[in-house]
Amino acid sequence: MRINHSQPVWAAMSDAEQPIPELYREAAEQVRQLARQARLTDIRDDLLALAARFERLAANADAAIRLGLVGYPHGEVIPSQRDRPAPKERE
If 0-12 CB within 10 Å is exposed, 13-18 middle and 19+ buried, where does residue 77 land? Predict the structure, then answer.
């Protein structure tokens, strides 16, 4: 088996299998994309602040995992639409 080192190990995982810090970073990027589309500066500023908060959560989760803190990160990963198998077609 060959390992592709150009992508992180979690790149091929479903959302439910990705490490929580990476889910925070993914959310931050999605919010930044929304901020780029925002036409009002107050909305853009709020979205960028939210993205920064997700980045801080990711950094905190990384640190907690690295330090082996029990019970952190909190919460449960909720499966997304992408994690569900496609519905079977009726015959």
Answer: middle
**Please, which pLDDT band fits residue 9 given cuts at 50, 70 and 90?**
very low
Contact between 25 and 52 (Cβ < 8 Å)? no
pLDDT band at 19 (very low <50, low <70, confident <90, very high): confident
Per residue, the 3-state secondary structure of the chain, as one string, reads CCCCCCCCHHHHCCCCCCCHHHHHHHHHHHHHHHHHHCCCHHHHHHHHHHHHHHHHHHHHHHHHHHHCCCCCCCCCCCCCHHHCCCCCCCC
